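Sharing a chain and its predicted structure for anyone who wants a worked example. Both blocks are below, sequence first, tokens second.
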Amino acid sequence: MLFLASCGSQSSTSSCSVASFSATTLPNVGSSGSNPNVMSVTVNGTLCGNAAYQYPNEPCVSVKVCSPSQPSNCQTISNLLLDTGSYGLRIFSNVLTVPLTPITQGSQSLAECVQYGDGSSQWGQVEYAYVQLGNEPFVNMPILVINSSYATPPAACSSSQSTPDTSPEQAGFNGILGVGLFAQDCGSDCVSDSGNGQYFTCNGSDCSCGATVALAAQVQNPVALLPTDNNGVLLSLPSVGSSSGVASLTGSLFLGIGTQSNNTPSGQTPPVTAVYATDSSGNISTVFSAYSSHAMPSFIDSGSNGIFFPAPTGGQLPDCSTSYGSSWAGAFCPSTVQSFSATNYSTSGSPSGSVSFQVGNDYSLLTSSNNVFNDYGSNILSGSTNLSSSASFDWGLPFFFGKNVFVGIDGASSSLGIGPYWAY
């Protein structure tokens, strides 16, 4: 489960001198090749790297990163988690072999702390890089260079309040490519409020002071920076086809919505049937009547490896800890595959649509030889998942199998409307 969450407020001390970080303008550079707006996605496949570090239902992509100071000095980085629930590119420092350019203001450098809904966090410097998606033009953009040992992390990115991502082996990926609903990972709040709890000014090892950061200097959703295919993405993954799962599968991420013949909504099979506008936090709402007749906030997140939701009140999904111990708390262990439906609503209440899904025995699935499952789910209210203190519904990767899912970026227009929205 990997969706970007607010880090909370951070009170700057009276000794802090707030630094305001602005962006440096560098030119984009050209591209080459056919189908420039198509990126291959493998779920537990070749783009996910070492099988020993993978986890089930992990969608992976690769990008090319080049040095701003030496644009011909590039590397292709794979094993990046494709995440429609966050915004921006984040890569572990020990994976990068090309020199990037830190964002500075005088002697001060910019760092960022982000927390995720699964209880993990990432910390490091914000640096400029040239980034290429597919065969699109390279874009110059700030990225987060993940390094839990950089300077002194704030409490929100330390083990006292979270589980810091310390290495690719521990996290299960080399980084995250966030292609969700928003163009920046913080937005206007971080432009004016140094107590945003996300961006920090570092003087040497002292990173105790908050920072205000111009929009262009914040970690960016690279899709929004593309010259043409910049209004959103289409994630297309095939069906799994078996309740017991498969070893891996391959799909595509199409950059842009209605900007090329391959990402036109009217040309997809299966077709798009509804557009669900979200609120300013990227949420729609879901009614899961097996739990409650009341709507709960929900989101559609390829970075979550299962469907996470409150357990139905009828007892159809017993907790795995009963049979397999406390380490399996929150996982569902029905004796047979269970079928459910829930209804999604646009933030305005209309349109709405029913979504059918299945939940299998998590213990049997996760101890099998397969890696990709369309019926993996867990209890979002369980302490083992650290996802939420209140009821919500996370449509994770199993939601995407067998669908064409459009992600409309905030403020950008297409034939489906003006973002932010989900459409499928």
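Comments welcome. Residues 1-13 have pLDDT under 50 and may be disordered.
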